[in-house]
Amino acid sequence: MNFKYINFLLTFTVLLCSGCANTPNSQITDADDYDKYLNISENKTLERAEKNEIFWSNKLSQTPGQYGYHSKLASAYSQQFATTGNIEFLKKSEDELLMVNKRTKYNNPSYLKSLAYNYISQHKFKESLELLEKAEALKGGLQETQKMLFDVHLELGNYEKAHTYLNTFENFSDFDYLIRLSKWSDHKGNLDAAIDYMEKAMIIAESSNMPSLKQWSYTNIADFYGHAGEIEK
Fold first, then answer.
1. How far apart are CA 101 and CA 109, in angstroms?
2. Which residues 6+ apart lie within 8 Å of 182 measured at CB?
3. Quick count: other Cβ atoms within 10 Å of Cβ 213?
4. Could you give the C-alpha distances from 29 to 24, 37, 149, in angstroms and in order?
5. Closest alpha carbon to 16 in 3, 33, 4
6. Residue 10: its pLDDT value, please?
7. Nearest Cα to 119, choosing from 164, 166, 156?
8. Among 10, 90, 170, 175, whose Cα sits 20 to 30 Å from the Cα of 65?
9. What are phi and psi of 179, to 5 degrees?
10. Do 32 and 17 touch, CB atoms closer than 8 A?
11. Ramachandran region, residue 229 (left: φ > 0; alpha: ψ -120 to 50; beta: rest)
């Protein structure tokens, strides 16, 4: 999931609510429609994440030599961050990922990428790049690494490198490729192409019936429709 777009949607919701409060005659939202999503007290995902935190914390306390438990605990914190938006959970996840990478001497591609993803969420792109380059050299899960390298290089303004990595995993039937090609098209100023590729990605997400992919594609295509002035869409 892309947290930048979650933050955008939350901000957009707040702005809409503020507008409704100031102009009651032109109200376009109804609190009953969104309050149930903002109420996290009954959020099952958060409850599961909290239970996982307790479980893996206990496991780690009982067997501190099992360094993989740091990764499990980091995942629980990441889930809590994704659900609440509380940055403290993201920082706790970072601490656990730093620990597991230290204990594996920064020689495990999976753990390196997990920490790199955490840094991307914090917009620490230079730190993320350093980790991803180490993961690339180790070659484990190389295509996933290349996709993340595209993301980071694009954020850092290293456009030629970003484009080079984009070409390494070209596949027009792959969701991950299409969303990145869409992002690249938007960067190049071709909004029509960006929308076209994102719509194709949305079809794949819907056919997979994976809620996380559908949510990601819906929020991003909504953003592009907004840029194109297609507010109703």
1. 10
2. 193, 194, 195, 196, 197, 198, 201, 220, 224
3. 20
4. 10, 14, 39
5. 33
6. 44
7. 156
8. 90
9. -70, -30
10. no
11. left
| The two three-digit tokens of residue 58, written as one number | 């206990």
Tell me which residue has tokens 């939350």. 10
**Tokens describing residue 103:** 């204990």
Q: Looking at this protein, which amino acid is placed at residue 50?
A: E
Q: Using one digit for the tens of pLDDT, what is the confidence trace for 151-205?
A: 999 999 999 999 999 999 999 999 999 999 999 999 999 999 999 999 999 999 9
pLDDT in tens, 113-157: 999 999 999 999 999 999 999 999 999 999 999 999 999 999 999
What is the rounded distance in angstroms from the CA atom of residue 20 to the CA atom of residue 169? Answer: 45
d(CA 197, CA 202): 9
Considering all CA atoms of the chain, what is the largest pairwise distance in Å, rounded to the nearest integer?
63
**Closest-CA residue to 58 (of 44, 68, 73, 40):** 73
Six-digit token string for 42: 């009954």
Task: Give me the residue label for tokens 């990595």.
Answer: 165
What pTM value is reported for the model? 0.80
